[in-house]
Amino acid sequence: MRNLANYNFDVLVHQVQPFEKLYNISQKYYGEPQYGWLILYTNKIANEMFIKSGDTLFIYQPLNELLGLL
Known about the structure:
alpha+beta; single chain
């Protein structure tokens, strides 16, 4: 994975709420539910099972530029 700090991305901070699912977070920030894998990848989390209420996730935007790096 490239060091995202070397790029000019907007980084939003999201605090995980009780019972919130990754697909809901993806829908909120990317407008599509299928980018949960990207949130995991950019936060260096292996699996959604490791996310719990109160955790902080960093959401990198814009999506098209982020996907272009991968």
